Amino acid sequence: MKPPYQITHQMLLLIASISERIGAINAALLYKPTTELRKKNRIKTIQSSLEIEGNTLTEEQITALLENKRVVAPQKDILEVQNAIKVYDQLILFNPFKLRDLEKAHTILMNGLIESAGKLRATNVGIVKGSKVEHIAPGGAMVEGLMKDLFKYLKNDKDLLLIKSCVFYYEFEFIHPFIDGNGRMGRLWQTLILMQQYPVFEFLPVESLIKQQQNTYYNKLSESDKKGDSTPFIEFMLGIILDALDEVLQSQNKTLYTEDRILLFKDSIGKGRFSRKDYLLHFKNISAPTASRDLKWATEQKILIKFGEQRLTEYQFLDSH
């Protein structure tokens, strides 16, 4: 059964804008940020997703944990972060269209935090906000069937992946398939779904924008619950995705310096040999003398090794950088 929602004029406008931004990101080769930026965005994602759930760790503390440094914080909060780091590191190994993989990811995410990590709930639950019950989830006996239906929809429905990722996220939160960890798991899985078509989403910190609009996020979940379909939530999430893509484009409006260009190129070219011409093809807006200066600087810094002379010159990145 297809989950209930309408394709609205607002959604079509947002999807057109999102497609435009993704086109611009791909054209500017921004879909694979530098290693340093990827690390920063991953930390931002983990910090934001867990803060929504009440975790107290800052981006600095998460960075310290990544570097195996000691952090003074509640043990539960540290464990939540360590688990999140593990699951995001393995993200590309999961198949977003398999319920089994979702359960595996939940096992890692909630390991040591709840006894039933990775197991769909069989009991009944309600979600309490403050002193009132915000949402009564479907009964425990229905959970497995509902999740199988949701994965069938995700795999087989002909709607755009952008829309299906938002529908999946809403329905996942509505079903509330696990005893705990549903919020962070829903956000993780939407990222995984979107990555299948758009590599930029692997390191796009959508979660930090959700955190900034946390009240609206909960209001849209609640509005969709009352309406009996996910339309308001889909519109909200598409707006968040558009804002996140705009941030990527704005971050690149700043001037790229020699080191920025060299690091970006390293991520693109990998370990193969290349010429100055290859470098110029990658950065179409720089002159030949600028390219020569960049490559000379990187060679002096022992980032690159140089082979041959003049027209036959080739370069290769050294492993230690």
Notes on the structure:
With 321 residues, this protein is mainly alpha-helical. It has 14 helices and four strands. It has helices at 9-27, 35-52, 59-66, 75-89, 99-109, 143-156, 161-175, 182-195, 206-212, 214-227, 231-251, 258-269, 276-282, 288-300; strands spanning 126-129, 132-136, 304-307, 314-317. The strands form two sheets. It has a two-stranded antiparallel ribbon. The chain is globular. The N and C termini lie far apart (51 Å). The model has no long low-confidence stretch (mean pLDDT 91).
What attributes does this structure have?
321 residues, mainly alpha, two-stranded antiparallel ribbon, 4 strands
Give a concise summary.
With 321 residues, this protein is mostly helical.
